[in-house]
Structure formats: structure tokens, C-alpha cells
Amino acid sequence: MSTITKVEMQKNNDQKVNLYLDGEFYSRVYLDTCVKYNLKSNIEIDRERLDNIIAESEKNLALNFSARFVDRSLKTAKQVRDYLRKKEFDEDIIDYVMEKLNEYGFINDDNYIISFCNTYQGKYGKNKLIAMLKQRGISDKKIDEYFNEVEIESSCYNVAIKKAKSLDLNIDKDRAKLYRYLTSRGYDYDEIKSVIAKIENGE
What we know:
By secondary structure, the protein is α+β, with helices and mostly antiparallel strands. It has helices spanning 31-37, 47-72, 77-86, 91-104, 109-120, 126-135, 140-149, 156-164, 172-184, 189-200, and strands at 2-10, 13-21, 24-30, 44-45.
């Protein structure tokens, strides 16, 4: 048996405490766990039991955190992993949570791609959509599979028309500005060139 000799609040996180056994630092523990299991100074406890308490508590807390996180909006697997890492959960706890979230259907990168593209294809071109999906941790394989199967309806013309209202395309500087704007939105050069020509011809 060991003795809990000190339980101190962490300076930068009021949800966690540092737990000391027999005068030495043992583990960081969530405050809720300490309250639930009466982990306080001068309490004797078996180290194996303490490890089990901490592990089970970490799993439950990580699941609760991630469930609230994905409930706000659809998330990729990478976004959830990064979120839990910021919460300082161990990788084995994160792996457990990811397995459960996949099992329950809370995260699915294939569904994320569909939802994301349906939401943003009216604002961005294919190149921008792909870049944004990669930033969110979607694999090249999944992106390629989606875009090989689905034809994205280009919004280049509508986006260009809206932007061109504030520009004079007879002025080289403004025409270049429109090119840059559409390029930043992820549209291909040839498509941009064709769309601007249509606008200039009044089509």
C-alpha cells in the first residue's frame, strides 16, 4: 500500500491536480476524479487500484470532452486527435476514444468530405477545397476517391460576377485583382480566363 502525501492544484489548469504518493510525484489527475474517488492527502491506496481509477477516469473524461467537441460541428479524425492532445491526454487514451467514436459513428472522414464540399463548393474551387480538406487531416487517398467519383459544380462564374461588381475590368489592375482573387479561391487558371472573358463579353 502507498500513501497519498499531497494533492496540489496545477497552476495553469484549475481542472487538474498533481498527485503525490509517498512523497514523490505520481500522476496528474482531474479534480473530478479526486472528488469522486476521495483521493486526498493521508489516504492509503493500492497503486494498481489507483492506476485503474486514473485510467478509467481519463477514458471517460476524454470521451465526454470529445463528444461535446464533435457535437458542435462535424469534425475529422485529426481534428479530434489534436483537440485531445491539447487536453494533454495520453496517446493510449486517445486511441481508445478514437476507436469508440468510430464505433458510435461520431467521426467519419468520408461523411466529412461530403458535408464539407456540399457546404463550401459555392464559395471555393476544387483546388481550394482539396487544400482545406488536407489541412483538416483528410488523407490524399480519401480526397482522390471522392473527387474521382463526384463532379463538383464550379461556382467560379457566380463568384467572379459578384466580385467584378466592385471592379472595372477595362483597367488592367482591376482585371489582375480579379485573377488573383479567383486563384486564391481555388479555381483553375483556364477556367478563370474563360469566366473573365464571358463577363467582359457581357455573357
